[in-house]
Amino acid sequence: MEPDEILKTNKAYWNANADLWFGTTALPTYGVHFLTENDLHLFGDVSGKKLLDICCGSGHSLKYHADRHAAELWGVDISHKQLENADAYLKKQGYTAKLICSPMEAELDIPKNYFDYVYSIYGIGWTTDLQGTFQKIASYLKKDGIFIFSWHHPLNYCVAWSCSQRKDIIENDNLIFNRSYFDESYFRMPVDGSEIILCNRKISTYINALAQAGFVVEQMVEQTDKETMEATGVISDKAKKAKMLPISFCIKARKL
Ligand SMILES: C[S@@+](CC[C@H](N)C(=O)[O-])C[C@H]1O[C@@H](n2cnc3c(N)ncnc32)[C@H](O)[C@@H]1O
């Protein structure tokens, strides 16, 4: 599939559905409530720091850092509707951020060797050029600058609840592999009456692309929050799955 077609489809989806996602995949959660900054403390003290949010969406993660006294906030997103929401939301809170409407893959008018942190909460997986995007992110960061991102865990795409009608299987809550972990090809997915195009990259693809872009991984998180792990009784299928495998993963890397 051609990158232009993927970007066009995904941009149309986000412009049409921005309001549905207002504040839903933002810090302090790393996209889903199973992983949160309240537990992980990956950022540390951001006061006085310069931060760039890749795929900033409705601006809620930017507001999270503004509340913690970040000195400068920038955001990039492909969807003008998301950025309109972000701009209005931040202004209402008395904050400003420099917002750029563009695919993250493009050459952008963003200063080089400038940011203390670049981060992306459930955004990076949308890129059509992982290696190029990581290289650009490295160029925006100062030496020793921190890159933090979260995304769907690739195992989560490969494993589903068994649809078997056998009562014993349903009662045993069996999860089955329904696609290959190695399959990184693009697929179309119907969502909210519209469509998105994504691919499912292996963990090693992310790690190797980071290494090639000049990052060292300081921490990788594959876990589910304690509350979900300890939950008993009736819980959602998603929470049941989260007790058996990571739904999301998070990486903290440093630019060398
Ligand atoms: C799940 S949302 C992230 C929301 C964000 N973390 C927040 O704090 O609100 C994903 C975002 O990625 C954006 N996006 C998708 N593909 C993109 C691309 N190629 N370049 C830049 N942004 C993209 C979408 O417009 C959407 O706002």
Brief account:
The protein is an alpha/beta fold and 256 residues long.
Describe this structure in words.
Strand 4, helix 5 (130-140) and strand 5 (141-152) form a beta-alpha-beta unit. The mean pLDDT is 94. The protein has helices spanning 3-17, 37-40, 60-67, 80-92, 130-140, 154-158, 167-171, 203-212, 226-230, 237-242; strands at residues 50-54, 72-77, 98-101, 115-121, 141-152, 159-161, 175-177, 187-191, 194-198, 215-221, 248-255. Helix 5 crosses helix 8 (203-212). The chain is of the alpha/beta class and 256 residues long. The chain contains 10 helices and 11 strands. The strands form 3 sheets. The chain has a 7-stranded mixed sheet with strand order 3-2-1-4-5-11-10, sandwiched between helices. The protein has one domain: Rossmann fold (3-Layer(aba) Sandwich), CATH 3.40.50.150. The protein binds S-adenosylmethionine (SAM). Residues 7, 10, 14, 21, 25-26, 55-58, 60-61, 76-79, 82, 103-105, 121-123, 126-127 line the site of S-adenosylmethionine.
